[in-house]
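Milestone M4 deliverable, item 7.
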Amino acid sequence: MLRQTSKAEKMDRIRGPIPADKTVTRFGLIRHAETIWNRERRVQGQLDSPLTSEGEQQADRWGRALKSLPWTRVLASDTGRAVTTAGIINAHLNLSIETDPRLRELDWGRWTTKTIAQIRAEEPREIENQESAGWEFTPPGGEPRRRQLDRSREALLGATARWPGDSILVVTHDGVIKALAQHLCGTGYTRADSVRIKNYHLHWLSAADGELALAGLNAMALNT
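Output delivered:
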């Protein structure tokens, strides 16, 4: 009779072998489900719009899919859309949920609530300058991209110190995932060296000895 693969073995196939002399904390990062402003292609930043009905259904499907992996807890951005997504998912996982404001999306300043098309029409030179600024990208009145990277790294390394060896599902934002991925790939965050992050996928990071590492980008499609 064939032996059934355990949840732990499934996780090991995704994340690779764990060094015997290290305590490794695993993070599975996902962005929140679809919101009304996502559908309108409107910048949300640190403001919120509700999940669409499709977004609620997405989160429910994700919870069913993610239940097959051996999570120990859920960590979420404290924005409404991330908390709502995490709550729907956790109806299937039944784990402890904590929030951390350091996992919020970039503060887009005066560009918040506008579509990218509007911004390009109203301030073409400014957005062109910002898009070529790489890590120094800073929306007018908003937050530097490098600051978003720093605070999200602090959040994950802080979680590692609190829960060493755990497997943590992190419900956050596209900007957080992109910043971490670009940093860990060592790129300048320009169009020429951009790392491709697929929407609605699970991405693996690991942490050991106070350092983060990529363990699998675009590792699992959630909208299937």
